[in-house]
Amino acid sequence: MTRRAPRSRPAALLAVALLAMLLATADAQAQRGVEIRLPTRAALASEGPLVRVVGVLDERDLRDLLDHGFPIRLHYRAELWTVAGWFNDLRGSWEWDVVIRQNAMARSYEVARLVGDEVTPLGEFSQLAAAVQAAERPYRVPLLPPRGRRSYWNMVVDVETLSMSDLDEVERWLRGELRPAVRGRRNPGTAVGRGLKTLATRLLGGETRHYEVRSETFRP
Questions:
Q1: How far apart (Å, rounded) are the C-alpha atoms in residues 125 and 59?
Q2: Could you list the residue range(s) of the whole structural domain that residue 179 is in?
Q3: Does 171 reside within a domain?
Q4: Is 149 inside a domain boundary?
Q5: In angstroms, rounded to a whole number, what is the distance separating the alpha carbons of residues 127 and 110?
Q6: Does any domain span residue 98?
Q7: Above 70 in pLDDT, residue 25?
Q8: Does the pLDDT value for residue 152 go beyond 70?
């Protein structure tokens, strides 16, 4: 009978360390995404949910893009659904954007929220961590569910470097014209420039991140 050689202590310690790293990575991935915080049951009919992203801007390539002058946009879409037999009904939706960019001249980061035509500055920060914290600040959706109906929220968030979508709009945003940057209006005369900078963004590792989460069903 052949006996298996006992595992050496260094090898066993290495295996434990690798397992701990894998568990930590899995836990970090599980925590990254979108959070929907429903009001208390007493306030469900008078307050919308609080929505925020958690950890989605922690990825190194996104931060590298910010430091190379590429603004990042978080596009939110909140959908209010009611449960109705075989088919659920979409009762309303609300969309907004949060944009974060580096101001190279001032050596700072600027964050703004855009809802329709309204722009709300969220601050200018010397440290990226503080800017990310502002960009992840909770936002209350101004939609109310119908009383007595079983309802739920579906939340979709897309994170992208704006220059991948349309470079011309990015350049307008950098000049302070925020509205075209999120409306997707294109100048056909800049197609070549958009293509070149889009390619540069992809070479730097930029891509769209998509997150989606559904709340629990509730009855206000």
A1: 19
A2: 53-214
A3: yes
A4: yes
A5: 10
A6: yes
A7: no
A8: yes
